[in-house]
Amino acid sequence: MTRPAESAGRWLERRGNAAPRGMTVILRKGRNRIPLTGLLHTFLFPAIFLLLAATAGPAALAQATPVEEVPFVTTPQDVAEAMLDLAAVTAGDHLIDLGSGDGRIVIAAARRGATALGVENDPWLVQESIRKARDAGVSARARFVEKDLFDADLSSASVVTLYLLPEVNLRLRPSLLALRPGTRVVSHDWDMGDWRPERSITLTVPEKSVGLTKTSRVHLWVVAARVDGLWCGEGARGRGSLRLRQSFQQLHGEAAIGDGTPVALSGQVDGERLALRPSSPATAGVWHLAVDGDGMRTRAADGAWRTAAGLVWRRAATHGGCPAS
Ligand SMILES: C[S@@+](CC[C@H](N)C(=O)[O-])C[C@H]1O[C@@H](n2cnc3c(N)ncnc32)[C@H](O)[C@@H]1O
Fold first, then answer.
1. Does residue 82 sit in the same domain as residue 52?
2. Residue 239 maps to which CATH number?
3. Could you tell me if 118 and 204 lie in one domain?
4. SS3 sequence of 38-69
5. In this structure, is the dihedral angle defined by the CA atoms of residues 228, 229, 230 and 234, taken in order, positive or negative?
6. Are residues 213 and 93 located together in one domain of the fold?
7. Are residues 218 and 237 in the same domain?
8. Is 325 a member of any domain?
9. What's the rounded Cα separation, in Å, for the pair 47 and 15?
10. Is residue 215 located within the same domain as residue 93?
11. Which stretch, 66-80, 243-257, 298-312, has highest mean pLDDT?
12. CATH number, domain at 155?
């Protein structure tokens, strides 16, 4: 397969001056494009990822100057399928692959009945992807656009897939966190810094052409509803207040229900569902809440939270408190 890209000579020339741990510039596809041979595909681009993996951990890369572009390296087909399995992609999903390369993740999702969109800034790869989708008989569900991935509208996605670079993941992170709660994000190899994945798996990939080991990591995140702040509860049997401090899917805070003393709590958000437990191991009880429009409702409550059953929760007015019980 051939594809236009920057000459290897120019790229290596620029790379020659880069300090190993600060290595950031990967590839800039300029106007002077030359055909890229199969040798470069199997050697140069994988070498870039290999150098990244060998000389800089994700943390170091994340602190480095932002990269301009990510090289074209394909996700092995088995890993692509594992990414879709981890996100449990079905016919009801709409998947967006950012930097879709030759379209393989988009096509694999369309084969499962999902609709899927590939966003790719290399026109040659976009055309190649369209051709492959046609050959696979999934053109009706697999679309490709030539676009910068940072300009893509992700609001329609139920699943977003990435095989980019650590610092690119971090630049995308605010947009991903702002997506609809429950949206799944799957990344091949690279993580999201302190946004910890819900699940990570390691696959043995003998045919992998990059990295120091013949393995791939696949990570899954689920976008959490934003529930940080003060909530006021009201119901037939009384009132309450719930203060939540949120860090990604982790929650801490305290709740005071009825005349009861405030209870410190911790918990998690999974999409639009919250599970809260008393921080003190001496106190039992799980409180399950669900985001419901602008408010929250209790799905189940036991132990310390029994009295929360039946309360409906609304955000306190800005700078306001909750009415006394
Ligand atoms: C490592 S490849 C991954 C390809 C494919 N997603 C896969 O997993 O097989 C990254 C892709 O992102 C594309 N890319 C890099 N920078 C981009 C940008 N700013 N906007 C859109 N695509 C970009 C590259 O051309 C390349 O095809």
1. no
2. 2.40.128.120
3. yes
4. HHHHHHHHHHHHHHHHHHCCHHHHHHCCCCCC
5. negative
6. yes
7. no
8. no
9. 12
10. yes
11. 243-257
12. 3.40.50.150
Boundaries of domain holding 300? 229-315
| CA distance linking residue 81 with residue 312, whole number of Å | 41
Q: How many domains does the chain have?
A: 3
Tell me which of 204 and 36 has the higher pLDDT.
204
Q: Which of 88-92, 237-241, 313-317 has the lowest mean pLDDT?
A: 237-241
Measured from CB, residues less than 6 Å from any atom of ligand 1 are: 69-70, 72-75, 97, 99-101, 104-105, 119-122, 125, 148-149, 163, 188
> Looking at per-residue confidence, does 88 or 213 come out higher?
88
For residue 133, CA distances in Å to 127, 139, 169, 234 come to 10, 5, 26, 53
pLDDT of the residue at 31: 27
Structure tokens at 80: 């692509």
Q: Which amino acid would we find at residue 238?
A: G
List, for residues 251-276, the tens digit of each pLDDT value: 999 999 888 789 999 999 999 999 99
Q: How confident is the model at residue 49 (pLDDT cuts 50, 70, 90)?
A: low
Using CA positions, which residue lies closest to atom 12 of ligand 1? 99
Reported as a pLDDT band with limits 50, 70 and 90, residue 325 is: low
Calpha distance 20→12 (Å, rounded): 13
CA of 117 relative to ligand 1 center, distance in Å:
13
Does residue 92 sit in the same domain as residue 17?
no
**Is-contact 49 76, C-beta < 8 A?**
no
Identify the pLDDT of residue 259.
81
68 located within any domain: no
250 located within any domain:
yes
Residue 69 domain-assigned (yes or no): no
Q: Whose CA is nearest to atom 2 of ligand 1?
A: 72
How many angstroms does the Cα of residue 102 sit away from the middle of ligand 1?
A: 9
99 plus 216 within the same structural domain: yes
pLDDT digits (tens, 9 = 90+) for 24-44: 223 333 322 323 333 344 345
Query: Ligand 1 centre and the CA of 139: distance in Å?
Result: 20
